[in-house]
Amino acid sequence: MTTLTPVLTKNWDQADSFTREAYERNGGYASLRTALGMEPSAIVDAVKDSGLRGRGGAGFPTGMKWGFLAQGTGKPTYLVVNADESEPGTCKDIPLMMADPHVLVEGVIISSFAIGAHHAFIYVRGEVLHVIRRLQEAVKEAYEAGYLGSNILGSGFDLELVVHSGAGAYICGEETALLDSLEGFRGQPRLKPPFPAVAGLYGGPTVVNNVESIASVPSIVGKGADWFASMGTEKSKGFGIFSLSGHVTRPGQYEAPLGITLRELLDMAGGVREGHELKFWTPGGSSTPIFTAEHLDVPLDFESVGAAGSMLGTRALQIFDETTCVLRAVLRWTEFYAHESCGKCTPCREGTYWLKQMLKRLEKGQGGEEDLTTLNDIADNILGRSFCALGDGATSPIHSSIKYFREEYLRHFEHGGCPFDTAKSTKWGA
Amino acid sequence: MTTFLGTPGSGNPNGPGNLHFEAGEPYDVETRQRLEQDAKDIISRYPQTRSALLPMLHLVQSIDGRITEQGVNFCAAMLDITPAQVTGVATFYTQYKRKPMGTYHVGVCINTLCAVLGGDQIWEELSEHVGVGHDETTEDGKISLERLECNAACDFAPVMMVNWEFFDNQTPDSAKELVDDLRSGKDVAPTRGAAKLCSFKDASRVLAGFADGRAHEGLQAGPESLRGVELAKEKGWEAP
User: Fold this and answer.
1) Res. B16 pLDDT band, cuts 50 70 90
2) Mean pLDDT of A292-312
3) One Pfam family from the UniProt entry (chain B) (predicted)?
4) B148 CB near a chain A CB, below 8 Å?
5) 8 A C-beta contact, residue A126 and residue A160
6) For residue B90, what is the nearest residue in chain A, using CA coordinates?
7) Residue B185: how many CB atoms within 10 A of its CB?
8) By CB atoms within 10 Å of each CB, which of A105, A388, A407, B116 scores lowest?
9) Distance of residue B107 Cα from the nearest chain A Cα, in angstroms
């Protein structure tokens, strides 16, 4: 049996956990002192050896990303933290920054030292006022303690850290769109290559990492790469925050080694809400193909989820029971992608709009089986045909819902509308 | 060209005005000076000037309650770019508003998970109760409503936001009571946030990067955020 392994969430139950005083009381900023006594390259090696893979969804090895940074470009190197958490279902970074912003700040300082950055940014979505307050205060406290600014703790290392609020655009979670946004432009993705490691912020070599990835760095430095790698699976090492939401008895944040299963997590969370059964779920947000009850025992690591036809993504486990209409869920996600498509690439801009129009019609029962072929066809023509993964994500609910729930689409056509009672799916419904 | 007639902006006597934003009340000398000082503060945070644009647009909203033509022109002048370049950015992001929002800007999450758990019903009942729709404001200027996409609080669904503060685990009745309280001038506290809501304009100033000294207020974490930690303690589970 897999058990929980609280590291990042460990001190969240202390009422003042967001203060520097509490963070230091719990051992915080000790890793920073250790790191400043190390060779920067040794920190990069430790992160490589730990096996840490990006916690923002894509799962790219963090240390390898750092190792790709272009050298000798004559331009400054930057670290940018992607705190634009907006993927539907994903709700781990926001509580982390609200409860323990200092672990992120410490991670930023250590990571910047490791990669030679003297200017770092936390790009946080603008719709989370109190989280922004906590980040601003944590950065202020870190400056006051001499952890930021000039000659940090006498090491000779200088670092400026800026908390930068976005303004409401899911696309800015895509790393190159985020960089354009941070430069003061519309948040639209860039063609890659060049990757940010070569030409990122202001054209300089740039590392863009997720909040949880950077927040994992202090513990790797403090306790060692081997300690981190002792958790998780062979290729998906370490721990991660799993976010359970929806029709579950005790929704919330559960920090566990990668490779835990939904069955195990549901047991911990009291199961699907009483009197109901699991119908479908997302392993890692709405951009990851949905799973069903047959996937309860899939180890939630990058390889196993991929082999089962989806993606680990952000470990955003959205649970839906049998009262939920799949078509309604897919329509709503599709409306989201159509709304959030930045408009740069035609397949995504037009395709998501077409999908939305079709699904609205199908939900009313106006359609036939041939429409499902058309839906799949449109999705096929979006997938892989745009600069970034937003359009790809939009196709995940389409393809996977038709694969697992074709009959349910057909029932809408036979019924002349949605056969479900939406009142039963609500939190106050039966 | 008739298409330029009756357009929102009218602040520029030599041109058609800004097609996207209203002119706005002209800044008085004191406001203008304060804005310029704030803008310089913002610009100084960044290696390159233009990076200041998003925070500066939040700053404009902290004065005007939405983006205005004069705000666009102010940003353009401070950053040495054109009003068209500023407009192109301001129209891209949903937090930048084209009409005055209420003192309390109320959002209801209608993305899939919240919608299914009751967000749709909350939206319908609340919108009818308040009498305005998406991105519309009540006549008294107190309340505006917005259909929100996912706000990263799914374990607290159905979720609402007021001036970007969290209101967790909402119901149609709690939503209506919340808005009634706001309209009647009662102090309202978010579920996870400051001890008392601030105005949309004051919130915008924090987003522009000017701290309001309220970070210490409120919970460190909601009950849902603690579920795993508490279970681990109860069972004696720890990381190695």
Assistant:
1) low
2) 98
3) 2Fe-2S_thioredx
4) yes
5) no
6) A186
7) 9
8) A407
9) 10
Q: Smallest Cα–Cα separation from A363: which of A320, A403, A321, A333?
A: A333
C-beta of residue A211 within 8 angstroms of C-beta of residue A93 = yes
Answer whether B195 touches A (CB < 8 Å). Answer: no
Among A93, A185, A253, select the one facing B89 at the smallest CB separation. Answer: A185
Interface touch B207/A88, C-beta < 8 Å? no
Q: Which H or E run contains A257?
A: strand A252-257
Size of interface A-B (CB pairs under 8 A): 281
Q: Give the residue from chain A lying closest to B192, CA to CA.
A: A130
Stated pTM of the model: 0.97
The Cα–Cα gap between B146 and B123 comes to 9
Half-sphere exposure (Cβ direction) of B107: Cα atoms closer than 13 Å = 24
User: Which candidate, B76, B25, B45, B154, places its Cα nearest to that of A92?
Assistant: B154
Instruction: Say if the ipTM goes beyond 0.95.
Output: yes
Q: Which CATH number describes the domain made up of B104-198?
A: 3.40.30.10
Q: What superfamily in CATH does domain B1-100 come from? A: NADH-quinone oxidoreductase subunit E (1.10.10.1590)
Q: Compute the distance between CA of residue A314 and CA of residue A301 in angstroms, rounded to an integer.
A: 11
Average pLDDT of span B89-94: 98
**Least CB–CB distance from B149: residue in A255, A336, A428:** A336
The phi, psi pair for B89, rounded to 5°, reads -80, -45
Q: Are strands A291-292 and A160-165 parallel, antiparallel or unpaired?
A: unpaired
pLDDT averaged over chain A? 97
The residue ranges of every structural domain in chain B are 1-100, 104-198
